Amino acid sequence: MSDDFSPFGRLALIGIGLIGSSIAINAKARGLARHIAISTRSAQTLARAEELGLGDSYHRDAAEAVRDADLVILCVPVGSVGAVTQHIANDLKPGSILSDVGSVKGSIVAQMSPHVPEGVHLVPAHPIAGTEQSGPDAGFLELFEKRWCILTPIEGSNMAAVARLKAFWEACGSDVEEMAADHHDLVLAITSHLPHLIAYNIVGTAYDLEEVTQSEVVKYSASGFRDFTRLASSDPTMWRDVFLNNREATLEMLARFSEDLSTLQRAIRDGRGEQLFETFTKTRAIRRQIIEAGQETAKPNFGRNKPPKKWEG
Amino acid sequence: MSDDFSPFGRLALIGIGLIGSSIAINAKARGLARHIAISTRSAQTLARAEELGLGDSYHRDAAEAVRDADLVILCVPVGSVGAVTQHIANDLKPGSILSDVGSVKGSIVAQMSPHVPEGVHLVPAHPIAGTEQSGPDAGFLELFEKRWCILTPIEGSNMAAVARLKAFWEACGSDVEEMAADHHDLVLAITSHLPHLIAYNIVGTAYDLEEVTQSEVVKYSASGFRDFTRLASSDPTMWRDVFLNNREATLEMLARFSEDLSTLQRAIRDGRGEQLFETFTKTRAIRRQIIEAGQETAKPNFGRNKPPKKWEG
Question: Which chain A residues are Cβ-neighbours of B190 within 8 angstroms?
């Protein structure tokens, strides 16, 4: 058990994908809750979660899982939080904390707020962590380690509840920051949503080409393309919901991106090498800052360069 | 020494950045040449190459390095190969092989061909390998291991010379394929040039934002953005030259990309979730194929997930 954290009695996780299962693993390994109740609608996923021993009780019905829970975390796609909240509302315990892990916060608040009963503390949260994998098998202990978790308390949020949730995420290894929901959505539009959209798009473009075969794209992908395929293999349901629920900010960032791309396009067409050189130089600095901030490996090629076998000539 | 490779007498490397130094390390470790002559215009870089012990002789003047060389490989930015070829032309040995490592092949052939003396065998080559780092310190033995190297022989290329160069690259660990220069440039436009352009562009967009601070972009970059910063920290001179020298194919692929992006943009604006879901699903398959082809790690997050320190709660 974490030294400076007094555990929750019952933690209910609604949804047990990459994030849900990583929370479960953390809660169990670090003693953050005395009982972990897991719920998901899919019988198969629930059975797998039980097989993996992720929780203490398993429920097809989310309402059953949240009964008597002190902390309820919705780990479902952003498009589903409204319906889930409505479904569990009557079973939420007065004084309990209701949170989520969604990549969009304005829409989350709008969807959940109308259903949250008096006395239940809604504190939306977003752990900035993940991999391109999904499902209960994808979770692991270190996922949140040294990653940021953003809380977006709403007007009138209970301060003790916010502090409790902050301590929970810190116990999972995260650094926690508070932010207004709309600012969160703008920041994530550029750091996460647009990058995913661009990655999905370029992989899609390559997929549809006729002049270059898919097998050529695959063979020569190490020249840059493969980097994009990681984001472009993320969970389609999750990302569909992100774009539908952070529409304005994503479209705004996309408009900026497209303007800048037109500028580069013209520079290439007109053969303006100096302009290209200048753009390509200023972008170098940002990676250095990210590495210095501990958010990225300093190893070349993300450290994946080690060959399959050592040369033994 | 590699079992099935009879070494070159003198190998001259003109330019000693990431690729040049990796070739030098391979040639030395695997005994692919009896003498490695290294040349670069920068006194500082040349001194560093000597400090690293990358070669057997070191030359400020490329013409001096290529004298009596059996294999000459230009490892300079694509925009410089014409001038370098012109400069060394008179000193190239009859019967020797002249090659390069440029990411663009049509322009390379056009730039070099006019200067290549009768009896010297021009065989353009492109090892599809690299990292975001540059300079003589960036090279390493395993860079070409299991990566493709594309040869684009020109009309009338000497077949023995092509076979010799193929064997050289295979001895460095590469799989070798032959291709027409213009097809190479189209394939690389989608697998490498467009990805780099997009990466430079999105990092540039983030750099210029006013609503989101650079420190926020850095902090929350693990949500997707950081993946792009790797390509966007590649050598600016090299990439300026690539775009200026593969203008048509890059602009063509960029046009496709932009069309597809407009389609996605409209789907988001109109809230067409099914269309988004469909696009995001088909792109997943390509990464699986790349992993199966041994061109990418199967580990989530490129394997960089291991936390800085283990949790010891």
Answer: 205-206, 209, 212, 217, 225
